């Protein structure tokens, strides 16, 4: 019996979680407040820096920790997106297409009946990337007439559960749809609770990776349950 989720092996689940954990651990603690100003790839707003330090009444060393975390945040968000893509790609009958596939799509069903362009959050695309996503899905259903193509987002607006036609400008096709994370996980795994189970399994996997010295506090566990109830309220359209 699996320790984490039923739809992939414990080894596969730990592998996917570990990659995200390592992104958090990659923080360079040897950076100084001055060196980050000199060496940061993106020029730091010095005015915001001085406001942050003075208004929040923190030291420059404390500001440095916040700034490093902020810079790291984009990398971590990308890793979390990859986590979902890789995890679902390990489910029997599904393929993580990675980078370089001719469709430029993230996931597909082995029989080429379902293709998925996966985003971490519903609002991560600007108008240009949304147009690109739409065009990729249109090319897929043109090549595979019996397929359904999805723009999927793990985090939907207000955690709404949805699977509906993606109406884009004046174009509408039953085979091009948008789908929330809970419905996506259900479709791929066949388990209507798969996303919720994944959410609840992550802390257990992190304990396994970081060692038994790390545990959620009793208060944190209570808050996790409350958080869980807000996100997975299981509302239907």
Write up what this structure looks like.
- The chain is of the alpha/beta class and 237 residues long.
- Among the domains are: 9-78, no CATH class; 196-231, no CATH class.
- The chain is 51% helix and 13% strand.
- It has eight helices and six strands; from the N terminus they run ααααβββαβββααα.
- It has helices at residues 10-25, 33-39, 46-55, 60-89, 127-143, 181-189, 194-210, 218-231; strands at 94-96, 107-109, 114-121, 148-155, 163-165, 176-180.
- Strands 1-2-3-4-6-5 form a six-stranded mixed β-sheet, sandwiched between helices.
- A hairpin with a 4-residue loop joins β2 and β3.
- The longest helix has 30 residues, at 60-89.
- It is globular and about 60 Å long.
- The relative contact order is 0.11.
Question: What are the key terms here?
Answer:
alpha/beta, 6-stranded mixed sheet, 51% helix, 237 residues
Largest sheet strand order: 1-2-3-4-6-5
Order of helices and strands: HHHHEEEHEEEHHH
Question: What value does the Rg take, in angstroms?
Answer: 20 Å
Biggest beta-sheet profile: 6 strands, mixed
Strand content: 5-15%
Give average pLDDT, whole number. 90
Helix fraction bin: 40-55%
The separation of the N and C termini measures: 34 Å
What structural class do you assign from the helix and strand content?
alpha/beta
Number of strands: 6
Q: How many distinct helices? A: 8
Low-confidence regions: none
Shape estimate: globular
């Amino acid at each position: 019996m699996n320790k984490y989720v039923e739809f992939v092996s414990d080894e596969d689940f730990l592998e996917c979680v570990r990659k995200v954990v390592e992104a958090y651990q990659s923080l360079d603690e040897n950076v100084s407040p001055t060196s980050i100003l000199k060496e940061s790839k993106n020029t730091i707003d010095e005015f915001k820096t001085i406001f942050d330090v003075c208004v929040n009444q923190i030291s420059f060393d404390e500001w440095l920790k916040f700034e490093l975390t902020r810079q790291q945040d984009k990398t971590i968000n990308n890793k979390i997106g990859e986590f979902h893509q890789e995890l679902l790609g390990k489910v029997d009958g599904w393929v993580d297409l990675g980078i370089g596939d001719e469709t430029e799509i993230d996931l597909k069903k082995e029989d080429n009946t379902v293709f998925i362009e996966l985003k971490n959050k519903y609002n991560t695309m600007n108008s240009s990337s949304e147009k690109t996503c739409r065009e990729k899905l249109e090319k897929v259903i043109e090549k595979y007439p019996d397929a359904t193509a999805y723009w999927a987002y793990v985090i939907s607006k207000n955690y709404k559960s949805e699977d509906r036609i993606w109406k884009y400008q004046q174009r509408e096709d039953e085979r091009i749809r948008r789908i929330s994370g809970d419905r996506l996980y259900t479709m791929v795994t066949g388990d209507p609770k798969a996303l919720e189970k994944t959410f609840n399994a992550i802390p257990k996997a992190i304990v396994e990776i970081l060692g038994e010295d790390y545990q959620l506090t009793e208060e944190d566990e209570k808050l996790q349950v409350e958080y869980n109830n807000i996100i997975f309220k299981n509302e239907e359209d």
